[in-house]
Design goal:
- By secondary structure, the chain is mostly helical.
- It is 69% helix and 0% strand.
- Helix 1 packs antiparallel against helix 2 and helix 2 packs across helix 3.
Amino acid sequence: MKSIRNASLALTHTMIGALVGVTTLAMAQGGPAITGVSADQYASMCATQAVTMPAPYGESDLKGNPKLQDYCKCFGDKFAERAMKLTPDTAKSGSLKQTVNEEQDMRNSCRKKYNLPQLKFPS
C-alpha cells in the first residue's frame, strides 16, 4: 500500500512540475492557449493511467463508468487552474502533504459534481 501511495505522490509531483513548466512557457509566449492543452493532457492521463491505480490513490473504481471522461475533464481543468496560479517559486513552497490534500479535495469535488462515490483517504 505504501508503494501505491508513493506512486501517487510521485505522479502528483510530476504533473505539478509538468504543468508549471507548461504554464511558464505559456506566460513567456504571452498567452494562456497552452493551458487548455495541459488540462486536456491531464484529463487524458486520468482516463488512461489513473484508472489502473487502485482507489483512493487512483481512479480504478471509476473504470468503465460512463461519467469517467466528464470527471477527468473536471479534474484536469481544476489541476490546470491550480497550476496557472503557481510560479516556479510557489510550486516548491507547499509541502507534499498540502499538495496531496489539495488534489484529494479537487478529486472529491469533481466526484460530487458527477454524483460519483467520494474517496476516503487514510490518515
